Amino acid sequence: MTTHHTEDVDGDALGTEPELEAELHSGLLADAARWLRGLLGPEEGVAAAVRRVLDVGSGPGAASCELARAFPRAEVVAVDRSPSQLARARIRAAELGLTGRLTTLPAERPEEFGELGPADLIWTGNVCRHLGDQQAALTSLASALRPGGLLAVCERGLPPRFLPRDIGIGRPGLQARLDAALEDRFADRRARLLGATSVVEDWSRLLAAAGLVPAGTRTFLIDLPAPLGPSARLYLHTRLTRLLAEIGDRLDLADRLTVEQLVDGDACTGILWRPDAFYLTAVTVHTARLCTGRA
After folding, report:
1. Tens digit of each residue's pLDDT (9 = 90 or more) over 177-226
2. What is the 3-state secondary structure (H, E, C) of the chain?
3. Which of 21, 150, 153, 295 is least enclosed, having the fewest CB within 10 Å?
């Protein structure tokens, strides 16, 4: 996975949605990579010091490629459970001229993270929430850090907003109800995860419990005002189509019919044509450092 807010869906089932989202989030990922470079030390020393970077839950490799650009001497490893997403990461790297800089590894369970080999920087985007024991996942990730290394955990932030409160069809406030239905579905699925453990999602505290020293938190904003361009509209159409299939049974009839109108490619009220559609979201990155070697 990358920075996306896709909830609890396997990468193979998402189709083109992660890549469409990656295009929208490319500026955010570049800003985050530059921020991480600054956290790791003086500019002149970082390039030599950062030799290996892991992107755990890489999805199609959007963050992997931005990290490769930010750390030009580092080997970057995209790690994901989905073979198709890893294949897309390799294609992306080739298209950006990063062949030879990016490799891929399959991994899914927390106990596998510590076996990925030592790294100076680990980025993980929206991975812990999909694992039953989030603390165990962080501890396993931390075990792969070299002394002085940095773990960057991208989790939550604010869900995307892309519609006004009143869109002229259905009841006002549709987006808030979609968010509520998604949260309910996520909570139900999370409770059924193997080894599901309830924790307060205080990421600085969780990182400290993993043996790391919190190094800073920053939120990155994506603000694309109306009217949206075609690629952003296509992403929102893809997202809404998936949400209709996944949470349609959690919506009342009026809201289901409204979403059906929004994904109607020929309707002037659809997301592909609406002049009032926008895209606004915030992604939060929590960081922590391994300050000493382990015994």
Report:
1. 999 999 999 999 999 999 999 999 999 999 999 999 999 999 999 999 99
2. CCCCCCCCCCHHHCCCHHHHHHHHHHHHHHHHHHHHHHHCCCHHHHHHHCCEEEEECCCCCHHHHHHHHHCCCCEEEEEECCHHHHHHHHHHHHHCCCECCEEEEECCCHHHHCCCCCEEEEEEECCHHHCCCHHHHHHHHHCCEEEEEEEEEECCCEEEECCCCCCCCCCCCHHHHHHHHHHHHHHHHHHCCCCCCCCCCCHHHHHHHCCCEEEEEEEEEEEECCCCCHHHHHHHHHHHHHHHHHHHHHCCHHHHHHHHHHCCCCCCCCCCCCCCCCEEEEEEEEEEECCCCCC
3. 295
Amino acid at 249: D
Tell whether pTM > 0.85: yes
Average pLDDT over the chain, rounded to whole? 92
Model confidence over 10-67: pLDDT tens digits?
445 556 898 899 889 999 999 999 999 999 987 767 767 899 999 999 999 999 999 9
